[in-house]
# Entry
Amino acid sequence: MSPIATTLYSRPGSIAGAITKAASTSSRSSGNTADLPQALKICAALASVAAVAILYIAYWFTPSESISYRSSLLANNRSKFIELGGFRAHYLEQGAGPPLLMVHGGGTWLFSFRHNLEPLARSFRVIALDMPGHGYTEPTRSATRYDFDTTDRVLLEFLDAKGISRVSLVGRSWGGGWALHFAQCHPERVRKLVLIASSGLPGDDRFDRRVR
# Structure
């Protein structure tokens, strides 16, 4: 048993005195107490280096585009880019027929429609678009806002650039909310609207976390 534990258990009636005596005994026996401030300084320095590295990776580091990873969807299908106001938008287009624009949910990209593109392309000119802040779509201006006005403008500019006067919209999750907002703002541009587990419908559409 250590000197601290021995003293505490042998003199239960005087805890304060026991701690003082045990600490003194431990200090004389170990001889390492003087190294504690130096160890703390080393730990603080390492923690600072780790914090700086994490911040660099999170906010400033940009991986090289010549990475070995490539989506199997894009490896087998030629995607394209189009310059819009403030964004270089990435999209995938297949098939012929009435235009059908697919809008993915938040935190995903057009890859989420990988199982739907080919079947739909048999009957439609199907287009899957990476929305602002997602996938391979990149901002071309600084201080870009990511809100409903931005998604509305990007969808409208995309349709204009592709020469599509009216379109059927498929929106999933947050994409459903973006599509719904667009349809409300530009009903003349929407032929049909398909919502899949959409946000923006009646009900509580917030991330609600409570500490009980």
User: Anything to note?
Assistant: The radius of gyration is 30 Å. Confidence is low (pLDDT under 50) at residues 1-12, 207-212. Helices lie at 3-10, 15-30, 36-60, 72-76, 117-121, 148-161, 174-185. Residues 70 and 76 are 10 Å apart (CA to CA).
